[in-house]
Amino acid sequence: MDLQDYLKALNHLLQINIENINEDEKARLLQKHIELYHSRKDILGYSITIVPFIPGRRSFDEAFYPGLGSSEETALYTNKRESTINFLYRIFQNQNSINSFPDKAILNATITVLDHHGKMDFTIPAWKSRTIVPIRKGEAEISAIGADPINHTVMNKISEAWTLSIPVEELVEEVRRAKPHQDLFDFASLFFERFKLQLDLQIEDAVVSSDYHYFEIYNESLFGSLYKRLMEGLLPWDLNIQLANVTSSQEISIDYHPWFPVLCIGTEKANLYMKAIFGDMVEEKRMLTDPGWLLRVGLYLELLTCLGIIEVANQEGLDLLSPQERKIFGQLPAFEAIRNRIDVKAWKKVWAVRKMAVSGVRPNKNMPVSFGNLLRKKTATLLFLHAHHEDLKQAIELAGVNVHNSQETWHRVFRDAERAVLKMDEQAFPELNFLTTDLKKFVLWHERGNYFGLKLIPKQFGRAFGDQDGLYLSACRNYRNSMNEVAEWAKSRGLMEYTGKECVPASASILENYLAKNYGRLKYLQNQDGYLEGLDVKDLEDAEVRFPEETILKTLGQVSIFKSLYEEEMRFLARRARPIELGHLERIIVQGREGSSLFILHEGTLEVVGRMNDVDQVLAVLHPGAVVGEFSFLTGEKRTAAVRAIDFALVFEVSADNLRPLIETRPNIIQELSRIMNERKQENDASVSQKSFMEKITSTILGKSRP
């Protein structure tokens, strides 16, 4: 850079506005840095970095698997139990990570509330330049492990990142205290608030480095509240209208309304995946790769669907919004994206298919409605799901791109829908209680061409159903087809990604595996989602296991690129390798995505799937001892294929960050790694040089170039 370019850059920096700092404060900051430049240049070499959110990783991973932790970007505000949101940060000196907090350094944190367009709303007074005590999570748990022969400091302080843990309830109360007359975390804010955390590293009264991280807090207690309004407000209102001129000796409640099953089952489905989100965010279980994305999709879907129906009901004479909510919905900028996407015409068509079948054939004289009401429910449910899934497309756009784990998330949501259907059948279809056992089985489980050994079926049943699937299969298969159609739409727009011909294949269904008597896979699928085997929704109490170091060490010893490491260096890696359990078709690597980890298969089977001419093909099946992701691990290159579990797999993850302390202690490891990788790469590409490998490996692991 010549003097002219330097002056241009300096002039540009002087004109930039700094958040929360006026011109006088900016001038004092510049003056302090000039003084430091003349007296203590080494202080300016310190920097702070907040570890970003990485799908699949957790903040608590850092305590036992350094380099594999992640800051959190979403949290739940809930009255069920205390919850925290955790942020990881690291400190560097001259680009090298350090494991002790700098002398005379002070860490200040500032939290700002943002509006829904990402602009600053206000700074929380209790979190304006609040001094933070540096803490490493997990120090108490690992204090008995002992010293490490490679780096005593690293083992005594096994986590290389510090953790800032903030109680969510406390933060929410401070926000409300700051703005007592402003609606926060409720309808006016779409049930969540956005924040910006800024960390400032201050030494000798000067801020020498800063970093920031965005996060969101969702009001868990209000999720599903709009669905509840439809159940408790809309259905009873419409039921009274429909029954105004009907004389019946039996009481007809809202559970006979044609819309009741889809709202009943849909609410239970949302409860089940919210249970998974709660377990992940609050209870620190490993339920989802990215709970935040599903949380956003579910929230926007509820808003789009329920407000669309509420608009239709309003035109019919019932407003389920309060006057204040009506004003907020119509005017507030936060609702602009929702207002623009609501399809009232589509919901009007669904509203038209809600008439009950009160008169007609009854298989039991005590049945308050006719058998045809079951078919009315089936028709209404399918039309409802069609409009609902058109809203789902819009919800995905609002939630943001997810190319890392959208397929795995889709599998989970689909199976939760299946569980909801199986669990809520009697509540959703009280008509079934008036049927004989055989007929009930027929109505629920009938599959095209399969009559379950029944020889005589009442004519009205045969005419009504024809040769089509029963309620269970119809609901689940139509739902799977619909979810696949939405996924295909989203994939074509770059919003989602999946491996295979369809996002949710039949093999990912608990119902299809049950019918095929594939009980082994059924068990895997249920266990994968945290439930016991079988079709019942019973929780699986399975605590996370800390794998023995010797087991991991033995598996890592099979990796060729680690052959040049000494035994104590291998133990160093073994202590940091992270075990990951994969369920059916769950991916550990996504094709085309960057990555800096390798994975060693310890148990189960993996398959490598490559996309060629827009068609996914299985390239290889891997067995225990196989290693995947070596080149990306060392060079940071994009993954050339997807890798996923067939039914179950246990892999150990080693990050490039895990190698960094070893290389800083023994730099010639890079030469050995580049030689091994060069030999393997030249088998396919003779033009690759060892020097280029050294440069890539150095840049990936150390984050800088060396001569």
Summarize the structure.
It is built from 26 helices and 16 strands. The chain has 707 residues and is an alpha+beta fold. Strands 2, 5, 6, 7, 9 and 10 form a 6-stranded mixed sheet that branches. Strands 11, 12, 13, 14, 15 and 16 form a 6-stranded antiparallel sheet that branches.
Description:
The protein contains 26 helices and 16 strands. The chain has 707 residues and is of the alpha+beta class. The protein has four domains: 20-220, Immunoglobulin-like; 223-433 and 468-498, no CATH class; 509-544, no CATH class; 549-702, Jelly Rolls. Strands 2, 5, 6, 7, 9 and 10 form a six-stranded mixed β-sheet that branches. Strands 11, 12, 13, 14, 15 and 16 form a six-stranded antiparallel β-sheet that branches. Helix 8 (260-281) packs antiparallel against helix 9 (291-316) and helix 12 (344-352) runs antiparallel to helix 13.
Notable traits:
single chain; 707 residues; alpha+beta; Immunoglobulin-like; 4 domains; six-stranded mixed beta sheet; six-stranded antiparallel beta sheet
Outline the secondary-structure elements:
Layout: H1 3-15, H2 23-39, E1 46-50, H3 61-64, E2 74-77, E3 84-93, E4 96-97, E5 105-114, E6 120-123, E7 130-132, H4 139-142, H5 152-156, E8 162-167, H6 168-178, E9 192-203, E10 206-219, H7 225-242, H8 260-281, H9 291-316, H10 323-331, H11 336-341, H12 344-352, H13 372-399, H14 406-423, H15 425-428, H16 437-445, H17 459-465, H18 471-492, H19 510-515, H20 519-528, H21 549-556, H22 567-576, E11 578-582, E12 587-589, E13 597-612, E14 615-622, E15 627-628, H23 630-635, E16 642-655, H24 656-665, H25 669-682, H26 690-702
Parallel strand pairs: 2-10
Antiparallel strand pairs: 1-3, 3-4, 3-8, 5-6, 5-7, 5-9, 9-10, 11-16, 12-16, 13-14, 13-15, 13-16
